[in-house]
Design goal:
Blueprint (H helix, E strand, L loop, with lengths): L2 E15 L5 H9 L3 E15 L3 E5 L6 H8 L7 E6 L9 H4 L2 E5 L11 H11 L4 H15 L14 H13 L5 E5 L7 H18 L2 E5 L3 H7 L2 E6 L2 E6 L1 H8 L11 H15 L1
Parallel strand pairs: 3-7, 3-8, 5-6, 6-7
Antiparallel strand pairs: 1-2, 1-4, 8-9
Helix pairs in contact: 4-5, 5-6
């Protein structure tokens, strides 16, 4: 399989201005500014092959979303390099943007006051897609997600689960080769979570895109991910398969003890946070 995502010492450091207390100190701050630096991602080197679902797991603030934003071109790295489909993401070339999509679980890309179908018509114009082909693709994706009946309903009137399905359709409308999913099942009920998991599994089998998936629901990772990336305090601390990780992390357990993937992840991250 071809390498579609490759990074070399990819790093992102955020600088935050320390605003002093009081009016006079604030005025002095214009001349003598002090900053705090926080390393959100630290010298990350990766190689990701095509047609796989990669589970990106870590605690809040570990650097997951920062990595996705850099790989999708939303954030420029402080140092290091990355190639996605042969392009440097932060150069934001049209040829690159037409081949990727990013879906942030708490942010809408569709228009709130119109129906999803009207939003898709606008997206088709933005991506210069054939209107008839775009409608057929919407119908195909909606059928897979079992949400055809709400395509013409105003987005604001839909439930959270239905809105997320509409967002997924919008993200896939132009058939991206690389898909970044940041918490796509957050806040959803069990039925909606299961529907989205089954859809993603089937879609990747049929279309073969590369997917990087972050989630705090370990079922998403355990059931979907071909490979696992575990990130702690801005650094990748494990790369490999889910079974290999569970086997390595549970060497201290008796063979007869039942393995709980979510508990293994929790204990591993707790250990990492103490060590690092």
């Amino acid at each position: 399989m071809a390498i579609v995502i490759e990074t070399k010492d990819l790093t992102r450091v955020y600088k935050t201005y320390q605003k002093p207390e009081g009016f006079l100190n604030s005025l002095r701050g214009f001349v003598n500014r002090k900053y705090d630096s926080k390393t959100a991602l630290n010298k990350t080197t990766l190689q990701i092959e095509s047609g796989q679902i990669i589970g990106l797991v870590g605690a809040n603030g570990a650097g997951k979303t920062t990595l996705l934003k850099m790989l999708s071109g939303l954030v420029t790295p402080t140092s290091g390099d990355a190639l996605v489909l042969g392009y440097r993401p932060w150069e934001r070339k049209n040829e690159f943007l037409r081949q990727i999509s990013i879906l942030l679980g708490q942010k809408n890309q569709l228009w709130w006051d119109i129906s999803p179908m009207d939003s898709y018509a606008l997206l088709a114009r933005i991506y210069d897609l054939d209107p008839s082909a775009a409608r057929k693709r919407v119908e195909y994706l909606a059928s897979m997600l079992q949400c055809t009946h709400v395509l013409h309903t105003q987005l604001r009137r839909l439930s959270l689960g239905e809105r997320m399905k509409m967002e997924i359709i919008g993200a896939l409308l132009h058939e991206p080769r690389v898909l970044f999913l940041d918490e796509p099942t957050i806040g959803l009920d069990i039925v909606a979570q299961q529907t989205i998991r089954e859809f993603l599994e089937q879609y990747v089998k049929e279309k073969g895109p590369t997917v990087i998936l972050t989630s705090h629901y370990m079922d998403d990772i355990a059931k979907l991910a071909h490979k696992l990336l575990l990130i702690s305090k801005g650094s990748i601390v494990y790369q490999g398969t889910v079974p290999d990780f569970v086997a390595k992390a549970n060497t201290e357990l008796a063979e007869s003890e039942e393995v709980d993937f979510e508990d293994v992840i929790r204990r591993f991250l707790e250990t990492e946070s103490r060590v690092r």
